[in-house]
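Hello,

Our lab assistant flagged a job as stuck in the queue for most of the afternoon. It eventually completed. Since we weren't sure the result was trustworthy after the delay, we are filing this so someone can double-check. Below is the sequence as submitted and the structure that was eventually returned. Let us know if re-running is recommended.
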Amino acid sequence: MRSLIAALMIAAAVPALAVQPDEVLDDPALESRARELSKELRCLVCRNESIDESNADLARDLRILVRERLTEGDSDAEVIDFVVDRYGEYVLLRPTLTGANVILWIAGPVLLVAGLGIGFAFQRRNRLSRDTAPEALSAEETARLKAILED
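-- returned structure --
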């Protein structure tokens, strides 16, 4: 039972291994804010991993930068703005819904609806063309066909 509890504690602490002891701030409130901000920022090396979870050197540099800004008295929003100004909006794990990002957020659903509409129209047109019976041959056409077949 003790080994199971120890294994669960280690598994729960794995994400915390990225933050090195020398990075941790003395003030628990500032450290808590730094950890929350670090969870919102993307590691530019690891892509879909936050800097709080990443062991990359750049993630470490960003964690230190966040802590420096907090100790200088910046608010959470000011720290995020500073990092975004420096590295671009890609550094945010949850991008904002403003500017050019609106096109990216809307493009997927719009293209899905357009694709479904085109598919529906194509299916309907095919069904209608299959359901209509071919026109019967006129007397002239029947006589001409008969003449061609007899030759």
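-- support follow-up --
The delay was a queue issue, not a problem with the job. The result is valid. The chain has two domains: 2-91, 101-150. The radius of gyration is 32 Å.
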